[in-house]
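Q: What residues go here?
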């Protein structure tokens, strides 16, 4: 692969890669460093990547996700569930107690996601942390779009059920 081909294929994905990295690492400098690391790795692998048969967007997003998790493990950092914050919005009249409760729910949801079966966890992460479309996720995990839709639906249902069970339990024991 020539420099021009590499630039044409991979450079347009820079924003996607940074977004995935930042959502996982929650640190601008770490996210930028990880993007650079992934680009170096992609450059080193450029002759081994068959761009005609691989979904480049999904491939690089998974590579980025794995690089971020590797960075977290290397530095013994616990995965911060805060990327889920966008799914739990606070209203303007929320009090401090409600805000704290909301953060606890986000933390619990993060733990629930970690406990999902591997395929479901991967699909949820690619969709909600990586921002990938169903087709790209399907290519990335080696499933068809229908199976990805089912995996995502089942994962969301499990997350919801477990959250409701925890909330119900906490409500009874206050």
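A:
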């Amino acid at each position: 692969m020539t420099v021009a081909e590499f630039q044409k294929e991979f450079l347009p994905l820079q924003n996607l890669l940074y977004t995935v990295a930042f959502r996982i690492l929650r640190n601008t400098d770490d996210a930028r460093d990880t993007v650079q690391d992934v680009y170096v790795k992609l450059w080193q692998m450029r002759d081994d990547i068959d761009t005609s048969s691989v979904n480049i967007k999904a491939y690089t997003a998974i590579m980025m996700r794995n690089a971020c998790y590797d960075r977290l493990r290397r530095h013994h950092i616990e995965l911060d569930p805060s990327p889920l914050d966008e799914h739990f919005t606070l209203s303007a009249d929320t009090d401090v107690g409600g805000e704290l409760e909301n953060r606890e729910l986000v933390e619990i949801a993060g733990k629930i996601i970690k406990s999902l079966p591997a395929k479901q966890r991967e699909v949820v992460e690619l969709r909600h942390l990586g921002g990938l479309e169903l087709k790209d996720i399907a290519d990335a995990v080696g499933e068809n779009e229908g199976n990805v839709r089912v995996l995502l639906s089942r994962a969301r249902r499990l997350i919801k059920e477990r959250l409701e069970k925890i909330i119900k339990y906490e409500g009874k024991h206050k």
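A: Context that may help when evaluating the design: Confidence is low (pLDDT under 50) at residues 80-100. The helical segments are 3-10, 14-25, 28-44, 56-74, 96-115, 118-129, 134-141, 145-172.
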